[in-house]
Amino acid sequence: MKVCVGLSGGVDSSVAALLLKQQGYDVIAMFMQNWHDADATLHGDCEWEEDRFVAELVAWKIGIPFYFVDLSKEYRQRVVDYMFNEYSSGRTPNPDVLCNREIKFDAFLKAAQGLGADMVATGHYCRRAPLLDSEGNQVAIDGQPQWRILEGVDPNKDQSYFLCQLSQEQLGKALFPIGHLTKPEVRKIASLADLPSADKKDSQGICFVGKVDLPTFLKQKLVPKEGDVVEVFDAFYSDNEQYSFAHDTLASLLQTSGEPLMITGFSSEDSGGAAFNNKRINEGSTASNRYDEEKLMALGDEEWERLAEPYDYSGITFQTETYRSGKKHVKKVRYKDNPWGKIVGRHDGAQFYTIGQRKGLNIGGHQDSIFVIATDIDRNIIYVGKGHSHKGLSRCCLRIAPEDIHWIRIDLEMKDGEVRRYRVRVRYRQPLQDAWAIKRKNGLFFLFDVPQRGISSGQFAAWYSTDDEMLGSGVY
Q: Is 396 one of the annotated active-site residues of the chain?
């Protein structure tokens, strides 16, 4: 069988190629160029020529043919334009998920097939396994053999989330040779084989573009425009109808009467390494909501949709008043006090910020950290909240529209009215979260045992079974 490895110049794809060669496959390598440094929209610190040079050295060392393909046109149309459109609409996209679906396992696959390859392989830390029936035979649906995507064994490097939009047809042509290894093991194999990429640092930034400063990248095409930064006070939620609805609805769904948990505890996703990423944030915790399954089934479609809606801050407005200041009683204008919020700064464009962000706001005078809790693109306003426990940072429920639901395991697709338990990841490197999945005509809803921080529309939610298998995904 002929396999084409997407050789990026990094250690992961290098070891993937080496292992396939050792296993007896007919291996070829292909480096894909997905951008041009001369393009006006993309300027990164990582020079693609250097990556190509290392990749070619690796191919020579392993003893496999090396090819080059320019996919920059496809990448711009399917990934870069998508990013700009999403950010301009106030959504936060994940280009790596789209790069895998649209480029590596589509455009790149077709280029590899043009060279006679039967399959493509990448250096992703995940595992592919056939779906077997009770007799050990691979299951086929409509003539298509069915495959499973399993988490990589390295809890600190699992990359299954990035493959959450792949189809069964794409999985049938994919190999992930290092999914059963940890990163240190991969480094050791590369070192023992004296591969030129053995000590090469992992790439950072946008998929196959390099280390790019995102705000700078976005400003190449999205025009900066100054607007207000509004801090939202706790009093807003006391008077807000949507917050009251969420509170009362969640309370009504509990197994026993009591106060629902609506704010999650804080635990940094940037600390703790493997130990953190291998532990569900709510595992063993008593601070979680325990919902009644029958009550979940009885809740109406419209109520579910409303429960998943983010808070609307457009009602926080500011009126001006005139006053006189100083010895000369100079006439000035100021905003009247508003118990719901206050204008605390200025920004250069709401489309450049995302929910949960705390860096780059340049707002002083606060003892606690300030976080973005919402953006209003039409009015060019950023709403922020003070502290990790701010009510606007947490949400208990999210909705995936019917047209955005993607099942990897199509044999497990939920029917309207069904309720199941899954483990869910709403962004990369997040520990899996226990949640109820509720399928209705107006979408698939996830109700989390523990409220989630920084849920930002445009991202992908991926859901998993209890045995490490990723079953589906959808943009929320």
A: no
What is each CA distance from 232 to 69, 74, 417, in whole angstroms?
50, 42, 37
* Candidates 99, 126, 164, 396; catalytic one: 99
Cα radius of gyration (the chain): 25
- Which member of 126, 164, 207, 396 is catalytic? 207
28 near 3, Cβ under 8 Å? yes
Mean pLDDT of 211-232: 83
Q: Where are the alpha helices (DSSP H) in 254-372?
A: 273-277, 293-298, 301-307
Half-sphere exposure at residue 335, Cβ-oriented, CA atoms within 13 angstroms: 12
Banded pLDDT at 242 (limits 50, 70, 90): very high
Indicate if 126 belongs to the active site. no
Phi, psi of 225 (to 5 degrees): -150, 120
**Residue spans of beta strands (DSSP E) within 212-311:** 227-232
- SS3 of residue 276 by DSSP: helix
Task: Give the global pTM.
Answer: 0.90
Which structural domains are found in the chain, ordered by start?
Answer: 2-213 (3.40.50.620), 241-310+392-475 (2.40.30.10), 320-389 (2.30.30)
